[in-house]
Amino acid sequence: MSRTAPSRRGLLFGTAAVSAGALLTACTSNEPKQQEQPAAGNTPAAEDKPGKPVTIGFAGPQADHGWLNAINQNARSRAATYSDVTLEITEGSNDTAAQIGQVQTLINKKVDVLVILPADGKALTQVGLQAMRAGIPVVNLDRVFASPQAYRCWIGGDNYGMGLNAGTYIGEQLKDKPNAKVVELAGLDNLELTRQRTQGFDDALKNYPNITKVARQAADFTVESGQAKMAQLLQAQPAFDALWNHDDDQGVGALRAIAQAGRDDFLMVGGAGAKSAMDAIKAGTGVLKATVLYPPTMAASAIDLARALGQGKGVGGLAELEIPSSLTLYSAVVTKENVDDYLPTGFN
């Protein structure tokens, strides 16, 4: 479930694309006869007419988490909107050796472009270099390779910004409350992304001297861990004013623990952008008041970038002839006021 951003922060770039259906190992030729659901949100511009045929190899992770499953769905859905794109999809794997083998198979098939969300960025750096040296440009999705020579373009989320925006939202809600207390339900502490999210959150709270973070508990990005760790937090902290939970999947368990404890005396902010979280925010009847996005639509944008690379084009809206080398997505805060705008991007 590791999702890390590189130290280079590119321009903000976003798109929205969501499709229903499971991801299968397949070679998908996107002809009009397919009954693929169109991508929601920002679809390709009508004037972007079909061009040179491009075969894109996509190597993603095992879909054992809502966000990761949404990554795979977004890639497939976006490719289906292009009649000039054929998508070669590998079976998702969290085993680095298996994923290296899958990428090498795509290289041997001589795909035009590769989109890779590595199970481990450092471990897959060499196969990224192998592809680039073979003349196959690589779009590195979210978990960054150890060398910039291993990819032509990186696109991913902003973990520090995610924490910063969560902390700022909570700070604004509590800025007039004396001696306010907040708690944090983090992800896995051995992941750099977790440390970045916590750092951003802590930095935001420095702007609100009336607020103190009184507790922090690390969970495992699962429903079960979220419930168990949240129960521990609730028992240890009989009173606080706000909770930031790093991940909406573990947030499902956290909300169960909160309901079981009969607690409704604080506000909660989630993370990532699950549909269940957005539904709860829209209903407005519980403690969950906002979620900070870590958009899985980045996979749809990666397909757009791969197609542009394969056709030798730049990005629409930019003057440059080439696509940028790094694109960082913005972590928007979804509240009851804007939730309808983001619901189409919510993932299960």
Automatic annotation (TrEMBL):
Keyword Signal: yes
Predominant location category: other
Entry-linked InterPro entries: Peripla_BP_I, SBP_2_dom, TAT_signal
Subcellular compartments: Cell envelope
Keyword NADP in annotation: no
Residue ranges of coiled coil: none
Residue ranges of every copy of the Periplasmic binding protein domain listed in the record: 56-313
Signal peptide (from-to): 1-22
Source superkingdom: Bacteria
Keywords noted in UniProt: Signal
PROSITE patterns: PROKAR_LIPOPROTEIN, TAT
Xref: Pfam families: Peripla_BP_4
Disordered: region residues: 30-58
UniProt xrefs under Gene3D superfamilies: 3.40.50.2300
Family: Belongs to the bacterial solute-binding protein 2 family.
Protein name: Substrate-binding domain-containing protein
Organism of origin: Streptomyces roseolus
